[in-house]
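Hi support team,

I've been running sequence recovery on a batch of backbones for a student project. Most finish fine, but this one hangs at about 90% for roughly twenty minutes before it completes. I'm not sure whether the input is malformed or the queue is just slow. I've pasted the structure tokens below so you can try to reproduce it. Let me know if you need the job ID as well.

Thanks,
M.K.
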């Protein structure tokens, strides 16, 4: 399983390629009860300029919604201090260097990567493996021209501000930091090893996943990502996907159960949070709501 490109669809949010003739088919569902509707839109957190404009159905969902909900509120999403807090949380406090905590082979691979990319290896020694893993992923994606400023969540966060629509987050930046900082060292090492192994195939993997997203291929994305993550890293899958979906479910149900109020909401989260048996789409369907793919 390649954890680097799963990050594009899961949490922490392409090159300016050729314009596309057709807008991407959105991963968009409408969940409704007698009064209200929740639109669920699966985000790719980094996109190409050619992915815009979006499909008409996506824009119509935005227009219909009185408010928007993201994984993080736009205020935190755009706050530079969040990255600083993440770096501070990742600093080692055990008196050891990163090198002292990794197998010799893993450290050698990290040294080789840092030499190829011109990243001073000493700059990484003071951090925990989870942060280095995210750093390697981000730098590799940026090398391919991946731009979080073009991601679907940031796109709609800007539009919500321009339209004066209220926004909120399903979780806080502190919760997201704790999610990674609380990972068992074994899982952190595993994640770093996978990211380093994936670096050489990053472009191929990202392009394939991005095309699945453009095609609106929910089954393809589920097979490529959630299914493999469940099989190969069940504990990691539970922490970063299933548990968070279950925590968000009652929040969305509350929005649906505002009886007598016409307050539709557009919810934009990483696409993997919508897919599969543990995804929000299925969880809301099992809860008895009407669910339709748009």
């Amino acid at each position: 399983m390649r954890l680097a490109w799963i990050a594009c669809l899961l949490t922490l949010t392409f090159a300016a390629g050729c314009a596309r003739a057709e807008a991407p088919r959105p991963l968009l569902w409408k969940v409704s009860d007698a009064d209200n509707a929740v639109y669920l839109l699966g985000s790719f957190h980094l996109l190409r300029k050619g992915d815009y404009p979006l499909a008409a159905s996506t824009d119509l969902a935005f227009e219909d919604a009185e408010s928007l909900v993201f994984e993080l509120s736009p205020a935190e999403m755009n706050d530079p201090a969040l990255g600083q807090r993440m770096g501070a949380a990742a600093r080692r406090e055990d008196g050891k260097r990163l090198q002292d905590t990794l197998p010799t082979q893993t450290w050698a691979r990290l040294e080789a990567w840092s030499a190829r990319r011109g990243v001073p290896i000493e700059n990484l020694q003071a951090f925990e493996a989870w942060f280095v893993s995210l750093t390697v992923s981000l730098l590799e994606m940026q090398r391919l021209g991946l731009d979080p400023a073009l991601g679907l969540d940031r796109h709609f966060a800007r539009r919500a501000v321009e339209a004066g629509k209220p926004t909120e987050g399903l979780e806080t930046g502190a919760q997201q930091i704790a999610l990674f900082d609380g990972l068992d060292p074994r899982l952190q090492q595993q994640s770093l090893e996978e990211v380093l192994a994936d670096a050489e195939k990053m472009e191929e993997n990202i392009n394939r996943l991005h095309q699945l997203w453009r095609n609106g291929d929910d089954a393809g994305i589920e097979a490529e990502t959630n299914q493999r993550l469940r099989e190969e890293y069940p504990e990691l899958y539970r922490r970063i996907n299933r548990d968070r979906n279950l925590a968000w479910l009652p929040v969305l149900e509350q929005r649906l159960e505002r009886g007598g109020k016409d307050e539709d909401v557009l919810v934009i989260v990483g696409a993997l949070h919508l897919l599969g048996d543990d995804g929000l789409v299925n969880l809301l369907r099992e809860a008895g709501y009407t669910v339709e793919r748009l």
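--
Follow-up from support: It reproduced on our side and the slowdown came from queue contention, not your input. Residues 105 and 193 are 10 Å apart (CA to CA). No action needed from you.
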